[in-house]
Amino acid sequence: MNLDRFSVNQMTVKQLALPELIAHCVRLGIPGVGLWRAPVQEYGIEAAASLVRDAGLAVTTLCRGGFFTSDGWEEDNRAAIDEAVTLGTDTLVLVSGGLTPACPDLLSARARIAEAIGELTPYAGEHGIRLAIEPLHPMYASDRCAVSTLDQALEIAERFPADQVGVTVDTYHLWWDDRAPAAVERAGAQGRIHSFQLADWTTPLPAGVLNGRGQLGEGCIDLRAWADLVEKAGYTGPVEVELFNDELWARDGVEVLEETLERFLAV
Amino acid sequence: MNLDRFSVNQMTVKQLALPELIAHCVRLGIPGVGLWRAPVQEYGIEAAASLVRDAGLAVTTLCRGGFFTSDGWEEDNRAAIDEAVTLGTDTLVLVSGGLTPACPDLLSARARIAEAIGELTPYAGEHGIRLAIEPLHPMYASDRCAVSTLDQALEIAERFPADQVGVTVDTYHLWWDDRAPAAVERAGAQGRIHSFQLADWTTPLPAGVLNGRGQLGEGCIDLRAWADLVEKAGYTGPVEVELFNDELWARDGVEVLEETLERFLAV
What we know:
Number of strands of chain A: 10
CATH architecture of chain A: Alpha-Beta Barrel
Strand content of chain A: 15-25%
Oligomer: homodimer
Mean pLDDT of chain A: 98
Number of helices of chain A: 11
Largest sheet of chain A: 8 strands, parallel, barrel
Order of helices and strands of chain A: EHEHHEHEHEHEHHEEEHEHH
């Protein structure tokens, strides 16, 4: 894929401080970054915004809003929208939340999620922020995200205008699903692909299954086929590489950034 | 659920030697066991068969055949069928296999699996053994089983007579899937539910994600709803409890067996 589509998600090289990350992106000609709320908050939202803006980088997404099945979701998500505005991105990625005492099963959790997104959409719309519901792999259904398939994400998104609520297509979460290609096509036709993220699938999975997302080319996903699929569906925006991986985090961040860029160009 | 439906899969209490397991099943009035090939082979197939037969226990399934994407599958699966006959069960559970150099993607793997089952069916039929394709959770799609949903399992099973090829419905693997209830109904209407297994879903998942299946009642699955669903679909056979769980294996086997029985009766 071409360099001009590349965006590196901050979590891929979380060992790099934001100024370092930005400087190396500029040096390597990387045009975009995806940011995470916690490290950006730690650095200072305004300061981070200046840093990225002065470097001429695009902020492709802010990750993440969501967790709608927990108390306090509304205040937290409004804050996320405010932060997205300050950082200059138009897209907030939503990890919707899992089962909680208030939503003890998947049906009630998804109903709650749809309802919450409905309540959040006007505020997001007023601020020019698109919400991108991210289906997470079914192994996270109970504790992180009751939205497991792109069909389920679309079923919620379709209740709202496409420029307000769309989806995040992440290969790591969707690669196994034989129904995902048709859903990608449908999402694209509706203009609802608001973010496209790449990560590869490798095994064995680590304990907790959070930090084992494979470097591009290390796993079994046909990333080129996914890129073609998403492109054919009409998506021509940035392609974020978002890897949560203890082994990558233990390495030199600049080396991992350069490797990730090489792997991206080779897809 | 009633005691007369209960079957304990040998792996749930793998710390118990077969004679111990059988003796405690008899003492507790447990009418059936599901057996695994490796420990039964170690004990001796004929000896295991006598032991179970003399105790008056039903062998509800033999686990497992499959791994059709690897070399040597045919010989291995014929042996599994022979062992099933000797042990006196009519059902061989199939874990179909994941990605291999010969089947590097899910589509080719599932095509290979369907083809292999077609080649195996005559031999199984001649020996009175039903094949029960088990969809495994998508987190196993790459390394253990490219058949991830009940729909996919049925799509293969439906190419063959229902009394020869059916499916295994296991709550642990299917609970997350909003399409599974309709598939259970379809499988039941066709007489293709050849095995029904219970395990609960608990997090965090352990490294490798193999041995974290929750004791009944410890997790988030509405097991009663699943039992009702399968029953409404027309299945009235044995209900196996199959737990792979390092914590349960570290405990006294008899205590775990008694606890599992209690939990089953409470569902």
